[in-house]
């Protein structure tokens, strides 16, 4: 087996007295995919932020592509080096793009910062909007002219621009309508097939994780309560919390009040 | 209450001490020898130079100098004025009551007219509201050094109702007559500001749920207004009272200058023009102390009137 | 609509047109344009030499060719008012420019660094905010001598924290946006994020505040000049003219004082109204 792309060992994050993340470990193989599920407040976003260097772990170790990334990058050189390995797409489609920047400008700026020659950025920006299934003319649009789903496609295109080896999607479809969610999830599966990028998919919704990830960890109060292959865990959950999560998802035949209350 | 008051007073004392320190080191920030600054560059007798050296302890180490100077200040020894050739205290004594009188009159006017205008505008609405608020917006932009002359021109010179400048012969009635225009000049802009703030906050209060509920419950409108609307609606005024008072205190510089009133403000400006540091230091200190003390009083009042603040402080 | 969507609508509204200024806003803009024009070309517009003294005409009222009459030294009043616009606006311009740059820089540093940097700067803003600018100006004039430069510096020290205080709150909100986090993850340098993205998004707020501040600056510097602690006579300046006309006013010749005072108030109101309207139009009150 090849070396893992991302290794998280015994991650812990405290905010004052609150332990947001407690002894979390996992690995993601190159081209692999990991789901992180848990209800709101279980520490999923905090894990994601530590991985991308937006938060400093209180304890634990992060390795990405063989280099130690436990602490946030010092200086922008290291920051931009790490940017080549790992990217993130946030939840809120309305604030994750600079409102003043057109889609084309946003994409070209990432490419320029990543060191792509200016003459090649235009072609690459076109490729990227095509990759996320959008027409070329959106390159000239401001975020305010786009719908939530379109903005999220742009955010995904931006995250993929520099061909990172892994992308974290932190509740990236949660704010969207169900039909749009399905489109984006299909898109992600499609992109993965074409580019071989690895995913870490963070969601409170089991159905979302099921479609896209091979492995899953279930978090509660900052700690992992169950882990395994996605299909196995979701079909035959061992931990009562996972069962609870599964039952609280509305599905055909679901009767109000019959499921567990959370 | 005790701890709140204690903290507030402590903060006040710290502010005042910091100001004395800044005002004192100002002497050494000025270009040139401190002694030249103190004599405002005028030719001076050797005796006076000696007196200045002693007053400011210029031959001692810095902190000693500061504390000796501060000790003197606490005993009312503000030193000698270079421009007026006399004791600074002699200059201050007659002027302090004049300025207090002026600021008090203006403050009463602001509260009386500003509040009532704001309340009436908010409760009545319609044309009265629009007209009075438009006027208030304009008046709030007229600084005291312009409104003073407008008032003198109209009410003293054209109509002849009131005296133009000075404080008169000293009899209470004459002093009162002389105080009207300067007080109005000092009060106008701030009063207009208070009117606007009052109107906005009473309006906001009128729109609150509990006011609607009280009205629906059949409580008479008059009662609802006096009990809920005005009580809560006027609190924000108290929170701007501190800034307002600071503005009034500084505003005396302009009004006393315009009306040729011998108060602290005019003294401050005259001394500044002549670079008479001892006087400027003294007046600045007095103004800052007044400002801090008034702010503490306002905070205590606020504390008494607003139950929310009270529970927070406890 | 979610909170995020509401925020987004507000942000789009920033792009609204100048037609939303309203009649009063346009009027204010027109007054400002006229004032700026006069400040630029005052000498050329002046019908007479603003400094030509002729005691024979002291306090003489309007006569043909001299629509406002003469001041206490027999100088043409209209010419002095026109020429005085420049000196009355140069100080505020410098003051607003200096304190906007300083206040913005400090606010951005506080909002970007957060933590103790922010705590220290905010405490500094609060303390400095409480000390009246005019008093500081008087103190500095005593030490360094009266003059426009000293007055501008003193007021810059007073205006900077008040803008810093306002802007810090807005900047904190902006730097908390997810696009800022995304840019950090994408390897953008701090300077690039702040200068190319955060700052431009704050510009509507900064511009509106600077325009409002300009109104206050005109009055504060005019006031200091009135006290003899700003622009010095015989320079034609509105604040100086208010003071210079005072003795004549008491003798029944109020034109100089009142005309100069009116110019100051008009300018202050115009800048205040325009800033206010722009802030409302851009949704950055
Ligand atoms: N910056 C912060 N300061 C203090 N507490 C935080 C901070 N960020 C997150 N938390 C807390 O940490 C816990 C985990 O939050 P988060 O990782 O956002 O959960 P999730 O993404 O699973 O909803 C929550 O209780 C949250 O309130
Ligand atoms: Mg989250």
Largest interface: B-C, 42 and 39 residues
General form of chain B: globular
> How many H/I helical runs of chain A?
9
Could you name the CATH topology of the domain at 6-99 and 150-230 in chain A? Rossmann fold
CATH architecture of the domain at 6-99 and 150-230 in chain A: 3-Layer(aba) Sandwich
Largest sheet of chain B: 2 strands, antiparallel
End-to-end separation of chain A: 40 Å
Small-molecule binders: adenosine-5'-diphosphate, magnesium ion
Low-confidence stretches of chain A: 252-262
Largest beta sheet: strand ordering of chain B: 1-2
Distance between the termini of chain B: 7 Å
Estimate the mean pLDDT confidence of chain A. 87
Radius of gyration of chain B: 24 Å
Question: How are helices and strands ordered from N to C of chain A?
Answer: EEEHEEHEHHHEHEHEEHH
Write a brief structural summary:
The complex is a heterotrimer of chains A (262), B (314) and C (285). Chain A has helices spanning 44-51, 75-83, 103-113, 118-131, 148-160, 178-195, 206-212, 230-235, 240-247, and strands spanning 6-15, 18-28, 33-37, 59-64, 67-68, 86-89, 166-170, 198-203, 215-220, 223-229. Chain A is of the alpha/beta class and 262 residues long.
Describe this structure in words.
The complex is a heterotrimer of chains A (262), B (314) and C (285). Chain A is of the alpha/beta class and 262 residues long. Chain A has a domain at 6-99 and 150-230: Rossmann fold, CATH 3.40.50. Helix content of chain A is 36%, strand content 24%. In chain A, the strands form 2 sheets. A 6-stranded mixed β-sheet of chain A has the order 6-7-8-3-9-10, sandwiched between helices. In chain A, strands 2-1-4-5 form a 4-stranded antiparallel β-sheet, with helices on one face. The relative contact order of chain A is 0.17. Mean pLDDT of chain A is 87; it is low at 252-262. Chain B is mainly alpha-helical. A two-stranded antiparallel sheet of chain B has the order 1-2. The termini of chain B are close together. Chain C is mostly helical. Chains in contact: A-C, B-C. Chains B and C meet through helix 1, helix 7, helix 11, helix 12 and helix 13 of B and helix 5, helix 8, helix 9, helix 10 and helix 11 of C. Magnesium ion (MG) is lined by residues 44-45, 171 of chain A.
């Amino acid at each position: 087996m090849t070396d893992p792309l991302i290794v998280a060992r015994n991650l812990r994050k405290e905010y004052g007295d609150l332990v947001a993340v407690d002894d979390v470990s996992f690995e993601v193989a190159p081209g692999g995919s990991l789901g992180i599920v848990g209800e709101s407040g279980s520490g999923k976003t905090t894990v994601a932020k530590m991985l991308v260097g937006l938060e400093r772990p209180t304890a634990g170790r992060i390795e990405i592509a063989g280099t130690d990334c436990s602490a946030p990058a010092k200086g922008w050189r290291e920051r931009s080096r790490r940017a080549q390995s790992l990217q993130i797409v946030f939840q809120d489609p309305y604030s994750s793009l600079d409102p003043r920047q057109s889609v084309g400008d946003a994409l070209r700026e990432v490419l320029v910062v990543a060191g792509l020659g200016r003459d090649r950025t235009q072609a690459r920006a076109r490729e990227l909007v095509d990759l996320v299934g959008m027409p070329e003319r959106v390159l000239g649009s401001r975020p305010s002219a786009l719908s939530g789903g379109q903005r999220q496609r742009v955010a995904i295109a931006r995250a993929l621009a520099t061909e990172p080896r892994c992308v974290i999607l932190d509740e990236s479809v949660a704010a969207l309508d169900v039909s749009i969610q399905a489109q984006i999830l299909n898109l992600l599966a499609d992109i993965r097939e074409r580019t071989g990028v690895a995913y870490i998919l963070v969601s409170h919704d089991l159905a979302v994780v099921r479609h896209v990830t091979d492995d899953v960890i279930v978090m509660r109060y900052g700690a992992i309560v169950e882990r395994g292959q996605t299909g196995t865990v979701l079909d035959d959950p061992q931990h009562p919390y996972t069962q609870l999560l599964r039952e609280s998802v509305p599905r055909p035949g679901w009767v109000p009040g019959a499921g567990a209350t959370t | 209450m005790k701890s709140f008051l204690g903290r507030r007073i402590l903060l006040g004392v710290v502010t005042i001490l910091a100001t004395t320190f800044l005002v004192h080191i100002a002497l050494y920030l000025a270009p040139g020898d401190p002694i030249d600054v103190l004599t405002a560059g005028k030719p001076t007798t050797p005796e006076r130079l000696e007196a200045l050296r002693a007053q400011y302890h210029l031959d001692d180490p810095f902190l000693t100098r500061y504390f000796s100077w501060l000790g003197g200040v606490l005993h009312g020894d503000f030193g000698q004025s270079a421009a007026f050739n006399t004791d600074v205290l002699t200059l201050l004594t007659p002027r302090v009551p004049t300025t207090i009188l002026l600021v008090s009159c203006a403050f009463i006017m602001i509260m009386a007219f500003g509040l009532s205008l704001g309340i009436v505008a908010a409760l009545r609405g319609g044309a009265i509201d629009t007209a009075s608020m438009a006027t208030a917006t304009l008046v709030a932009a007229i600084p005291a050094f312009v409104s003073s002359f407008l008032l003198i021109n109209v009410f003293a010179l054209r109509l002849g109702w009131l005296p133009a400048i000075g404080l008169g012969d000293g009899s209470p009635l004459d002093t009162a007559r002389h105080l009207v225009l300067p007080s109005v000049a000092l009060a106008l802009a701030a009063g207009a500001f208070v009117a606007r703030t009052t109107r906005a906050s009473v309006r906001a209060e009128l729109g609150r749920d509990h006011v609607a509920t009280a009205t629906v419950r059949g409580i008479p409108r008059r009662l609802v207004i006096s009990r809920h609307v005005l009580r809560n609606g006027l609190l924000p005024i108290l929170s701007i009272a501190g800034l307002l008072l600071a503005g009034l205190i500084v505003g005396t510089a302009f009004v006393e200058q315009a009306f040729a009133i011998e108060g602290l403000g005019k003294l401050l400006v005259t001394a500044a023009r002549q670079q008479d540091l001892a006087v400027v230091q003294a007046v600045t200190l007095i103004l800052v102390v007044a400002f801090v003390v008034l702010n503490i009083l306002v905070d205590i009042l606020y504390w008494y009137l607003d139950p929310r603040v009270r529970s927070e402080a406890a | 609509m979610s909170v995020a969507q509401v925020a987004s609508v507000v942000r789009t509204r920033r792009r609204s047109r100048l037609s939303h200024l309203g009649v009063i806003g346009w009027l204010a803009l027109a007054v400002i344009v006229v004032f700026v024009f006069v400040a630029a070309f005052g000498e050329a517009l002046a019908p007479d030499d603003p400094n030509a003294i002729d005691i024979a005409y002291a306090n003489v009222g309007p006569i043909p060719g001299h629509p406002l009459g003469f001041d206490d030294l027999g100088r043409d009043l209209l010419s002095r008012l026109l020429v005085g616009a420049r000196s009355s606006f140069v100080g505020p311009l410098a003051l607003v420019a200096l304190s906007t740059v300083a206040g913005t820089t400090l606010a951005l540093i506080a909002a970007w660094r957060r933590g103790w940097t922010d705590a220290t700067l905010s405490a500094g803003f609060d303390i400095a905010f409480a000390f009246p600018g005019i008093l500081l100006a008087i103190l500095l004039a005593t030490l360094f001598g009266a003059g426009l430069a000293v007055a501008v510096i003193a007021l810059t020290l007073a205006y900077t924290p008040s803008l810093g205080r306002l802007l810090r709150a807005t900047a904190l909100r902006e730097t908390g946006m997810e696009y800022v986090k995304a840019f950090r993850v994408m390897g953008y340098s701090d300077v690039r994020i702040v200068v190319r993205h955060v700052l431009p998004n704050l510009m509507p707020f900064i511009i509106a505040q600077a325009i409002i501040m300009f109104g206050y600056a005109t009055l504060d510097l005019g006031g200091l000049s009135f006290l003899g602690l700003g622009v010095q006579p015989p320079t034609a300046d509105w604040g100086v003219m208010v003071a210079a006309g005072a003795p004549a006013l008491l003798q029944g010749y109020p034109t100089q004082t009142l005309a100069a005072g009116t110019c100051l108030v008009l300018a202050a109101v115009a800048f205040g109204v325009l800033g206010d309207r722009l802030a409302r139009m851009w949704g950055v009150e």
